[in-house]
From TrEMBL:
Residues 128-180 form the RNA polymerase sigma factor 70 region 4 type domain. Belongs to the sigma-70 factor family. ECF subfamily. CDD domains: Sigma70_r4. The keyword Transcription applies. One of its GO terms (molecular function) is DNA binding. InterPro entries: RNA_pol_sigma-70-like, RNA_pol_sigma-70_dom, RNA_pol_sigma70_r2, RNA_pol_sigma70_r4_t2, RNA_pol_sigma_r2, RNA_pol_sigma_r3/r4-like, WH-like_DNA-bd_sf. Pfam families: Sigma70_r2, Sigma70_r4_2. Keywords: Sigma factor, Transcription, Transcription regulation. GO terms for biological process: DNA-templated transcription initiation. The lineage of its organism: Bacteria, Pseudomonadati, Bacteroidota, Flavobacteriia, Flavobacteriales. This is Sigma-70 family RNA polymerase sigma factor. Residues 29-92 form the RNA polymerase sigma-70 region domain.
Length: 188
């Protein structure tokens, strides 16, 4: 069955009203377009998946700003391209700041910024606080966050482990991240 432009427009309107099935439809329908676009640009499956998830998270958060005079896939790809450009800029800035042409004398005077015992304690406390926030999520959201970010499994590995379709895993992870961000914002 072919999806008509009217059906897409209808699903976008439902998504603007917060209907989860519309978000799932749009994610399923456009996932390969956005993922393929990123894979061609950066040639790294893991990063392409991450950027694609971030694209849909940002698009769904800002769905009210979508202008119907543009096509939805163009809007998604623009968001995706901007996320990828921002990531590349941050990475390049980090690389640039880590290189130096200064003399050894100047380098010797640079303050050591390696983590102190206090820094390590603060990081551990932040991790403990994050884990407490994660525990406030429903168990099926906790599980995908754990598998993705703590066990560092790919989306395909999570799909196999949970015996669920890949797109369900992507939607669940997207929703879990959004709910976790809301919990953190409420607690702070």
């Amino acid at each position: 069955m072919e999806i008509t432009p009217e059906e897409i427009s209808n699903q976008i309107q439902k998504a603007k009203k917060g209907k989860q099935e519309a978000f799932k439809f749009l994610l399923d329908y456009y996932w390969n377009d956005v993922y393929g676009f990123q894979l061609k640009r950066i040639r790294n499956e893991h990063d392409a998946e991450d950027i694609t998830i971030e694209t849909f998270a940002k698009a769904f958060d800002k769905i009210d700003t979508f202008d119907p005079s543009f096509t939805f896939p163009t809007w998604l790809l623009t968001i995706s391209k901007n996320i990828q450009i921002d990531r590349t800029r941050k990475k390049n800035a980090s690389i640039y700041s880590n290189t130096t042409d200064t003399s050894n004398e100047i380098v010797q005077k640079i303050v050591d910024h390696s983590p102190t015992p206090e820094d390590k304690l603060i990081r551990e406390q932040n991790l403990a606080q994050l884990l407490r926030f994660i525990k406030l999520l429903k168990p099926h959201y906790q599980e995908v966050i754990n598998l993705r970010y703590f066990q560092e499994m790919s989306y395909n590995e999570i799909s196999e482990r949970l015996e669920e379709p890949l797109n369900n895993v992507k939607v669940r992870l997207l929703r879990a991240r959004k709910l976790l961000a809301e919990i953190i914002a409420q607690k702070e």
